[in-house]
Amino acid sequence: MDILFGIIAIALVLAIAFMMSNDRKNINYIGIGVMLLFQLATTAFFFNTSIGQSIIKAISNMFNKLIEFGQEGVSFVTGGIAREAMTDGSSASVFFLDVLLIIIFFATLLSVLTYLRILPIIIKYIGAFISKITGLPKVESFNAVNSMFFGQSEALLAIKSQFHHLSENRLYIVSASAMGSVSASIVGAYLGMLPEQYVLVAIPLNMFSALIIASMIAPVKVKAEEDRVDIKNVSGANSFFEAMGNGALDGGRIALIVAAMLIAFIASLNLVNAIIQSIFAGLTLQTILGYILAPIAFLMGVPGDELIQAGSLMGTKIVTNEFVAMLELQSMVQDATLSDKTIGIISVFLTSFANFSSIGIIAGTVQGIDSKKGAQVSRFGMKLLVGATLGSILSATIAGLFL
């Protein structure tokens, strides 16, 4: 029965994307079918085979080792002072130190690998492979892969030399890819809050889901001369150590931005809840969102007695950001209030940038590259969020089929 509901959910998501399409005659159904099959095969391989699970474990161990290296740097700078002031001898966790500051080390690694031209070449050829098997243009495919490694702004800036070729439909696809994926620089932070197997599988799932939904909503066909990818000088650094410095500064900025947004969103959420509870005792915004999104969670495969909690987490992610929802999910995981299946489905749903604040980030980045195209992104901002959310639902539903 769960498989039947999952198929219904996938069909419903695709039907909504079809209804939202601005050029239904030119939808590339073959490419969409290929990506769906790839998602199903990938998820089955990683969740249901011993080889796949071993690969996930190996990747997870690599990330955990990198996190340990990052924690050594954080501990050198802040460890003793923070621990003494906060704890009574126990090893308490400080979110800013143990999760957010790890972003600095990951951002440094990405910057160095970019300077050495290792990542750009990998991304270019993976993007070319995706373009070949799906029929999507190279720029859109490259940007989708690039978005798995870099943040929304950085991914879009990497293709700024191609922006003059982008029609409104192509602009929608690259923006949707940036919103539907996550940055590798913050994967370490995610792994500090959620089970690693779900986060790591969610990254390619959400990349393909973003492309599937976006290419249905905004189908594209391009001329050969308008379909090229330029990866020259993508680093911007003139030396290895400058690349390290740039990465560290970028990572520090990201960590501070996330910390500031968490303070603002969590404080605002508590303010809204206080207002709601002064009128309706015991009611919260999360509960309201939980009831609204419970039907979607049901189709995604969440057990009946956990629908409100799952819907609440989904809604919290959309109206605030994924970190706020992940922190709530983390506490539920620690309290053992959710089943493994629900944890897996919701973890996959949360592992993307699909939320209201991303509209402003993407529109602002594009505005800095091309003011006219920035205005276009602002106009279809809500359509972008709906499409990215549909992509998250699609990924989570596919994950639920194999859990």
Topology:
Elements: H1 2-20, H2 29-48, H3 50-86, H4 95-100, H5 102-115, H6 118-134, H7 138-149, H8 152-157, H9 168-180, H10 187-191, H11 196-217, H12 240-279, H13 285-300, H14 307-319, H15 322-334, H16 340-350, H17 356-369, H18 371-379, H19 381-401
Helix pairs in contact: 1-11, 1-13, 1-19, 2-3, 2-11, 3-5, 3-11, 5-12, 6-7, 7-9, 7-11, 9-11, 9-19, 11-16, 11-19, 13-14, 14-15, 14-16, 15-16, 16-19, 17-18, 17-19
Features:
transmembrane; membrane; 19 helices; 403 residues; nucleoside transmembrane transporter activity; mainly alpha; 0% strand; NupC family nucleoside transporter; CNT_N_dom
Describe it for me?
The chain has one domain (2-401). The chain has 19 helices and no strands. The chain has helices at 2-20, 29-48, 50-86, 95-100, 102-115, 118-134, 138-149, 152-157, 168-180, 187-191, 196-217, 240-279, 285-300, 307-319, 322-334, 340-350, 356-369, 371-379, 381-401. Helix 6 crosses helix 7 and helix 13 crosses helix 14. Mean pLDDT is 87; it is low at 84-92.
